[in-house]
Amino acid sequence: MLFVRSLLFVVLFYLWWTFVALAGLPFLLLPRRWIVGPMRFQAHVVVFLLRLATGIRVEFRGLEHRPTGAAVIGAKHQCMFDTIAPLTVLPDGAYVMRDSLLKIPFYGWLSAKAEMIPIDRQGHASALRRMLAAAKAAIAKGRQVVIFPEGTRLPVGATGVYKPGVAALYKALGVPCVPLATNSGAHWPPHGLIRRPGLIVYEFLEPIPPGLDRREFMRLLEERVEAGSKALIGL
After folding, report:
1. CA 211, 215, 216, 219: dihedral to nearest 10 degrees?
2. How far is CA 34 from CA 87, 92, 144, in A?
3. Mean pLDDT of 116-141
4. Which of 42, 78, 173, 216 is deepest in the core (most CB within 10 A)?
5. Dist CA 176 CA 174 (whole Å)
6. Is-contact 113 39, C-beta < 8 A?
7. pLDDT score of 123 more than 70
8. How does strand 198-204 pair with strand 177-182?
9. 89: number of CA atoms within 13 Å, CB side?
């Protein structure tokens, strides 16, 4: 039954995304602001389909810490759902994402229209400068820049190396950084088909104010994200 429900969700998810990709094409001709609402709506639909098919519920905690204006969000990354669910509660999220994803037909086109922030992992200093320029443009519009400091999805309970990109954003943008913890990987693993029933929690944690030195900032971010995520998992 677990396999059947998981397979049902995957089918519904990709059918929905096919519809979104096709229905979203006219938005490519409109100003960016027109795509913000539909992006949030499609994320709400995915949350609904997840509960309908698999019994997985989604809950957001720490909403008193959720940024409603310009901020950086340093988020734990355990599965693809982490790129979707926060859109339901953020006013105008701008994800830092691999530039190769922006080249994918339909999905990439819409992401580019939404002005997501591309990063070339092999581009070194020049790639970092382009990322910072795009992030500054997003912050100037009062958006929330979402970055996964570990750079990749990791199994539940695992801790990766926190990359320097998040520190560069924090220093250059001069805005608070809000840590975001989750237990999503316990129900939606980083890879594979199975989705396990239960409660996925995303928790916004106490913001880190701007102006700290790099070492202290990185220490606080990792400490809060990892402790918060492990607490949600029950470790």
Report:
1. 130
2. 15, 12, 17
3. 88
4. 78
5. 7
6. no
7. no
8. antiparallel
9. 22
DSSP state of 86: G
CA distance linking residue 166 with residue 172, whole number of Å = 10
Average confidence (pLDDT) over 82-105: 93
| Close Cβ partners of 107 (under 8 Å, ≥ 6 residues apart) | 17, 21, 101
Separation CA 132–CA 165 (nearest Å): 9
Angle CA(87)–CA(92)–CA(97) in degrees, nearest 5?
A: 70
3-state secondary structure of 200: strand
Tokens representing residue 10 in the block:
């995957």
User: 33, exposed or middle or buried, with CB in 10 Å at 0-12, 13-18, 19+?
Assistant: exposed
Greatest mean pLDDT among 122-131, 148-157, 178-187 lies in 178-187
